[in-house]
Amino acid sequence: ESAGTIGSLNAAIVRRHLGLVFLLQGDLDGAMAKFDEAWEIYDASGATGTSDAADVLRYKGDVHAQRQDFDGAMELYKATARVYEENGHADVPDYADCLWRMARIRSYKGSFREASELLFQAMWIYRKAGADHSLEMASCLRLIGIVDFQQGDCQSALSWYREAWEVYTARDLEECPDAAALLKNLGGAYRKAGDLDKATEMLDQAWKVYEKAGATQSPAAASVIRHQGVILMIRGDLDDALVKLQLAHDTMRSSGTENSTENISVLLYLGELRFLQGDLVGALRECAEAWRICKEVKHEGSPDAAMILVALGRVQQLQGDFKQALENLKQASDLYRSAGKTRTDDYARALSVLATVYRSLNNYEMALGTYNQTWSIYDDIGMTHSFDAADVLRGWGTTFIKMGDFEFASAKLQASWEIHEQLGTTSSLQAASVLRQMGMIHKSKGDLDAASEKFRQAWAIHVDEDGHTEHSVEAAHLQSSMGDVELAKGQYQPAAKHFFEAWSIFRATHCERHPTAQRALRHLRDEALRAFSAFESEGWQFQLGDLANILGKLGLQVSSKDLEEIVRLAHLKSEAQCYEAFLEWVFTAPG
Questions:
Q1: Are 110 and 339 in contact (CB under 8 A)?
Q2: Which residues fall within 8 angstroms of residue 271, CB to CB, at 6 or more apart?
Q3: How far is it, in rounded angstroms, from Cα 423 to Cα 522?
Q4: Is the dihedral of CA 235, 238, 244, 249 positive or negative?
Q5: Residues 158-206: pLDDT tens digits?
Q6: Any idea what DSSP says for residue 542?
Q7: Residue 284, φ and ψ in degrees, nearest 5
Q8: How far apart are CA 484 and CA 496, in angstroms?
Q9: Are 351 and 372 within 8 A, CB to CB?
């Protein structure tokens, strides 16, 4: 500026590099402004066919890619490649840089074969040019790993990621932003493979790099936070997980990438967290926002849409809307198949939820077949010791319990528990569900004390240090199971308390239609009738003392004001009317 050369080609280079700094910090608007200024200089100087100008086009493409404008990004990458081709430089590393960027777009759109061809072409150029240890080669290796990861091959992805990491360590560049992005990929792959400690180590290291670079508000940093939140959720630390996932979502918004596929992932994990906490309305809200973004970026027919449909199906299954759940899950499966993603953990997860719906519909043959198919995918991609695999084994075992095959059920549940022990996730709600199913086997065999002990262990997972419990759907199922055991022992009052708690949670989570909820309600009504029959009086004209005794037998504590309201409701002509009025009060009175 002071020399009056602000419009020179040298100044254009400065602007280009300044834009790159903004890009690495996550300031997409600032980056694009500098790239546009640089391009105006090249255009005014008639230098748009130079390699420096091509660099600007490439970086502009990077901004479009981060904004999820993949078509715009691809056009800019193609324009960059043409500059090199027209100059006879289709065998230089800069040209290879364009190829792996185009491959990245192809992989986003599910064109994995085309992506792989472009990547191996780029790798060949780097090696021919002696650039085996260049940062660009590391980026290419990393992207090959990403493509394998997207296709479900975690072990192959880890192999490529480690090879890329060797480039950074050989050049003492472990603390550059690109290295942090690779560490994030390593963390994600280790998490999928079931090594949560190694995943946490990689992600923490990545975060330190972003902190040092002042890039904690970038989309890449948000992705690290998301992975950290998911690991906390897997370990059962739901409160801290919520903080992390909400921070990831806020970071995506502040970086201008709210309408991105990465944010869809954040929202779906937020939905899963709310699902685990029993907030099914909140889970559906997160799904709805994810679907809005999916439509915004025109991904309704993509694997992103399939993930949303799976999340919806899971909630609908718990709510007892099996028909709609089945429809959404079948549609999700079709989307995965059409995208060629049938060897991925995402497709396996869709099948696992589908198997659960089949079990809920008492179609055990279809459930077992679908669990078998799910497990073969995990076996194929090396994920048989992952957290998701443990949950498949639990569902598989539950199906065998329903069929009365307790030997196979025990084997599946024990295998699931062993995975939780290996992963250090025995405090998760999924692990509590395994214990509950083990208790159900004991109950079915008549060993009620052993069943009670398993249920007690499971319930301890639901209770935090302050004695508070999450109103999760799993907690409702567990309370119902505990009621079943007390009922089998002839302990009607404790049974009623458990069924009442189960029904209350089912209502609070909007799952009244679920068969277990309806069964708990039937047991509770049976106990209400038993209590009424014990205190029947002529004409059904109850006194406050009588009602207090009835409610006490059910384990319910009420105020005198509530009792007066019940008398008003119960001053009716028939036993049926009185009974209905009582139930109306039980299920509608505040508290």
A1: yes
A2: 282, 283, 284, 285, 286, 287, 290, 311
A3: 39
A4: positive
A5: 999 999 999 999 988 888 888 999 999 999 999 988 889 999 999 999 9
A6: -
A7: -65, -35
A8: 10
A9: no
